[in-house]
Amino acid sequence: MSVRPSAPGRVVGSGVALSAAVLLAACQLQPPAAFEPLPAPRPEVLARFALDHADQSKAPLAPIHVLGNSGRADEEATDAPYAEIELNDVLRAVETHFPLVLAALEEVEIAEGKLQQSRGSFDTRLGASGAFDLEGFYESETLDFGVEQPLEFWGLNVSSGYRIGRGDFAVYDGKRKTNKDGEWRLGVTMPLLAGREIDARRVSLWRARLARDAAAPLVLEKRLEATLKAAQSYWKWVGAGRRREIAVRLLALAEDRMAQIELAVREGLLAAINLTENQRLIVDRRAALLRAERSLQEAALTLSLFWRDERGQPATPRDELLPYEFPAPREVNAVLRAEDEDLALAQRPELRRVEVELERLQLELELARNDVLPRLDAGVFGSQDLGSAVSTPDDKEPFELTALLRFQLPLQRSLARGQVRENEAKLRKLTRERQFLVDALRNEVRDVTSALTQTWLRIAQAEENVRLANELAQAERVQLEAGQSDLLRVNLREQQAAAAAGGLVDVYEEYFRALAEYRAALGLPYDEVLAGGAIGESPAPEQR
After folding, report:
1. pLDDT in tens, 376-407
2. CB 150 within 8 Å of CB 201
3. Which of 28, 182, 391, 475 could form a disulfide with 164 if both were Cys (CB 3.0 to 4.6 A apart)?
4. Interaxial angle between packed helices 487-522 and 340-347, expressed in degrees from 0 to 180 and rounded to the nearest 10
5. Residue 154 above 80 pLDDT?
6. Alpha carbon 446 to chain centroid distance?
């Protein structure tokens, strides 16, 4: 573990810039911009994947300085062969390559495809027909071309066409004959009651638009879920690395003490049993190190689902990529804001999906109420023949104007009335469910706020516990060198110091996991951090 005891104004770890940026963005509480895949992880980080199959047995273990004073020098940290993986590297990989996020983006394309299909009901329709009486008492030919355009506005239907009829026609077919240059026509029909404000054709289009609107919250939900799990996996990996360092340091203390005990036994200052006891400690601490190593491997494998190379393939992070220390957390009062609950209600995709479903049910209800109304359609059609008359009795030069009314009413209308009752009940049901969801989201924000606050308060106590435990362990070792203590008490003090250091790792891990949960509860998938630069800088304009 590599968390130092607290010191005023001291920044711990190479990840400080990321942590401060995360917390600064949380303070600003700005809604995220529309999703755009972010750049791939940094080139110097991706370059390490070429060494995935290299021999790792000789990779050096980073020393720790929670117990004792064996921290690596600043110049060593500066000259490290690899840059540490930071949280924003993992999140960039998630946004750019994580399969479930990319799959969610396909839902937008699916919804757009369905919307395009629904627009087919309002496509312009072109028609043509021809009739030719080639043999018989009446020989004639008729050609008819027409264009029809349905409109969303008031259910209007506009049609136009051209017709030409030549030859001999029966008296009852006189309308088929036209003047020499044919006949142009134009017509408009409009529903006056049922179908005026809403009809099945328009509802189908509006449903598709709502489905497209519902796809965006689905993408955000998958991003929130993926970035939250990625952040939690990242901090678990960092914590496992620090716990492994505690085990390394504990083992090093026992091994370094072995020569001192052997000398003391030879000179008769300590009983030989102390040598056996220290050997037992070495064996026990080696077993603890193996357990810590297994936990680190498990955390690295979990993180590999989110940490991906430039081809989008999972990449297990190497030990040397571990951050040397946790970033320095900021005071929660600088993170939390009074409007957090309102921001969550505005951002959370679950609530937006319910609102879209309410809009859809309202459409269904309006359609059912429309079907209860009688059908009354009105239409106006005008036509004008062009050119000279083919024959004097059949001159069709005068302009023709026709108006029509069409009425239809199912008497019982049981289907429509039943649909009205059903959709009214569904609306009331979903409205009540939405109210509970609002209450649950507010409660979730309060819960994560409480968790973040309490974890922050525990950090100071855990750091003080580490300081005191280290002092006691060091004092006990001094007592052992002076012959006024024994290995049993030294081991007890060192175990207490290790437990305190492990407890500090737990608190730091809990804090950053709580911060990730806090941001997810607000509906923010770390966009501000990823799009921004250094602390205090505004996000780049093209990434807002």
Report:
1. 888 888 888 777 766 656 667 778 888 888 88
2. yes
3. 182
4. 60
5. yes
6. 21
Dist. CA 450–CA 52, nearest whole Å: 41
Question: pLDDT, tens digit, for every residue of 76-115?
Answer: 333 344 578 888 889 989 988 899 998 989 988 999 998 8
pTM for the full model?
0.72
Instruction: Give dist(CA 11, CA 376) in Å, integer.
Output: 77
Q: One-letter amino acid identity for 414? A: S
Beta bridge partners of 407: 376
Cα–Cα distance list, 374 to 4, 196, 199, 377, 408 (Å): 79, 11, 13, 10, 6
How far from the centroid of its chain's Cα atoms is residue 518's Cα? 15
CA distances from 324 to 72, 86, 266, 438 (A): 10, 11, 40, 41
Rounded to whole angstroms, the Cα distance separating 292 from 241 reads 8
Q: Taking 90 as the threshold, does the pLDDT of residue 237 lie above it?
A: yes
As a whole number of angstroms, the distance between CA 77 and CA 323 comes to 10
Strand pairing report for 183-191 and 157-167: antiparallel
Each residue of 355-377: pLDDT tens digit? 999 999 999 999 899 888 888 88
Q: Is-contact 149 178, C-beta < 8 A?
A: no
Residue type, 269: L
- Which residue, 302, 312, 354, 309, is CA-closest to 101? 312
Q: For Cα atoms 432, 438, 441, give the angle at the middle one, nearest 5 degrees.
A: 140
